[in-house]
UniProtKB/TrEMBL annotation:
Pfam families for the chain: Aldo_ket_red (PF00248)
Every NADP-dependent oxidoreductase domain range: 17-281
Gene3D superfamilies, sorted: NADP-dependent oxidoreductase domain
Name the record gives this protein: Oxidoreductase
InterPro entries: AKR2_Oxidoreductase, NAD(P)_OxRdtase_dom_sf, NADP_OxRdtase_dom
Amino acid sequence: MLERRSFGSTGLDVSIVGLGAGQIGEVDVTEAEAAEVLNGALDLGVTLVDTAASYGLSEERVGRHLGHRRDEFVLSTKGGPKINGQRDWSPGSVLESIERSLRLTGSERLDIFYLHSCPVEILRRGDLQDTLDKAVDAGKIGVAGYSGDNEALAFAVESGRFGAIETSVNIADQWNLRNVLGQRPEQGVIAKRPIANAPWRFPQRPVGNYAELYWERLQALDLDPGAMDWAEFALRFTVYAPGVHTAIVGTAKLAHLQENITAASRGPLEAGALQSIDNAWRTVGSEWPAST
């Protein structure tokens, strides 16, 4: 059985590995493939499915293929920017995004709804937080959350207005972990990019690829996974990092998800490995901001 944790003080329980459903929203993923990974994830004990309004067909496919199992998982989704003619980052845009997510996922309530990378200057206004509070009171969302990094994440956490956060945490991306996580232990925390976009796939710098920054950082950190493969080394670091409740693995392949679940279930890295990661980070990475 996949380990589960209380998601802060939200009243939700989540598996230590969640499914990042971004890839199942891509048009080159068939309906059969989407159905296999979504249902297979729940069969493997995954109890968190994370999606977003900007993930193509993802919300629609979650509703289509998991609607009949809606009570078996925590649904986490994100939105807020301009939509259907609404002004960008306006209360109307947030409300319309919530309504759209409810409709597409076939849900009566979204368990968690995050403002998706909302800029800090917008957060300082406070009106979007008020809008989320009203949506909670109306029963449309269960927990109001913020998804982002760096200064905006720090502001969101310090404000006390959000019951959950989603942010980058991995061996090559530790600013959020070291500077923000744990400040409000009552908040639920989802770690995204837990295997750092798998930069070890590339023998040379992958110019223009989304893994390029993490590839550069791993060269500088000069870490050694020992007998483990890189994915297991990275995932076990993130899943058991202080303050993290669950780490979402993005994939459209059920076999990949199974491999990650097996790796995470082996428990935290040994103390020596953690010390080596800490030493390397303090030596070369302490000034690195989180990737956005």
